[in-house]
Write a structure and sequence with these properties.
- The structure is a single chain.
- With 305 residues, the protein is an alpha+beta fold.
- It folds into 2 domains: 121 residues, Clavaminate synthase-like (Double-stranded beta-helix, 4-Layer Sandwich); 126 residues, Clavaminate synthase-like (Double-stranded beta-helix), CATH 3.60.130.
- Strands 1, 2, 3, 4, 5, 6, 8, 17 and 19 form a 9-stranded mixed sheet that branches. It has a 4-stranded antiparallel sheet with strand order 7-18-9-16. Strands 11-12-10-15 form a 4-stranded antiparallel sheet.
- A hairpin with a 5-residue loop joins strand 11 and strand 12.
């Protein structure tokens, strides 16, 4: 990637910062080099490039095998979705990590940065796992966690429609189509409910292997938001509640490991969603405009069931 400046270790996190001379096109980024850097750094902040919503979408498409979405957000150009989740702070989470459809990559494009605060937060699951007390590690190794909640018909059908790439009209989509998409995911239960909604349970380790490595990362949605959805019930796999003392340990360690991304206009952020959790500080400038994209790469995530 000639002409670019790369800094590994963004602040005190792992991370990488790639800066370019103003006006440098995103096309200079080589897919294989970006993936190699992501495997090492966990997240990459791209700064100084000539960016726009269209250029952002092009980069996501050429770096990914398949695009997915959050059905509760508006779609722009078939790839990007405007981030609209209120103004409160958002806890650390993996995007769609509380469902069987967690993407490999999570992307952000900052069209307009906030004048004050409103930072995105990132937290490396490798570092969190290594810093957790041995008793906490053992508790999460001994038992998976389970997310359970209801999702209304419009949201899950929109997700299926996009996943099938329009091969089936949305009015013809049924529960069997959703079940087919979830078939490869162990520990998933989905059943129909009144009014076309569904109830699902998703069992998964709190710490697991990542996209690029067999090393365990504490990457999950235990602390995550539910702005556009019913708040999930989160328990251990045997339906026992997660003790407050254990959650306090998680909060203590993740807060110590969290890095703030202070956005500048035109910034792009790429996150390994299987390793690095993200969140947000409270929005103090409502004019902030950020778009999100979710995608899969051309190989299977290590450790998936």
């Amino acid at each position: 990637m000639c002409g670019l400046t790369t800094k590994i270790s963004y602040e005190h996190g792992r991370g990488a910062l790639i800066t370019a001379q103003p006006g440098t096109p995103l096309d200079v980024l080589d897919r294989s080099s970006v993936m190699e850097m992501l495997a090492d750094a966990g997240f990459i902040l791209l700064r100084g490039f000539a960016t726009s919503l269209d250029e952002f979408s092009r980069l996501v498409r050429r770096t990914s095998e398949r695009i997915t979405l959050d059905p509760a957000r508006s779609l722009h150009g078939g790839v990007a979705q405007k981030v609209d989740a209120g103004v409160d702070a958002i806890g650390l989470h993996c995007e769609n990590g509380n469902s069987p459809f967690m993407p490999h990559l999570c992307w952000f494009f900052c069209e307009r940065a906030a004048a004050i605060g409103s930072e995105t937060t990132v937290c490396d699951g490798y570092r969190v796992w290594d810093a957790l007390a041995p008793a906490a590690q053992r508790a999460f190794l001994d038992r998976d966690i389970v997310y359970s909640r209801h999702v209304d018909a419009a949201k899950w059908k929109s997700f299926v429609y996009h996943s099938l790439q329009g091969k089936k009209e949305i009015e013809d989509i049924g529960l069997e189509d959703l079940l087919s998409l979830a078939d490869a995911q162990r520990g998933t239960l989905i059943r129909a409910c009144a009014g076309g909604s569904i109830y699902y349970e998703f069992q998964v380790p709190a710490a697991r292997k990542t996209l690029f490595s067999d090393r365990l990362a504490f990457a999950n949605s235990l602390l995550g938001p539910s702005y556009n959805y019913e708040k999930p019930r989160i328990t251990f796999a045997d339906r026992e509640p997660i003790p407050p003392s254990l959650m306090s340990e998680v909060v203590r360690v993740t807060e110590a490991m969290t890095v703030d991304i202070a956005w500048q206009n035109g910034d792009l952020l790429l996150i390994d969603n299987t390793r690095v959790m993200h969140g947000r500080r409270a929005i103090l400038d409502p004019g902030r405009t950020i778009y999100n994209a979710l995608s899969f790469v051309g190989w299977t995530v290590r450790g998936e069931g």
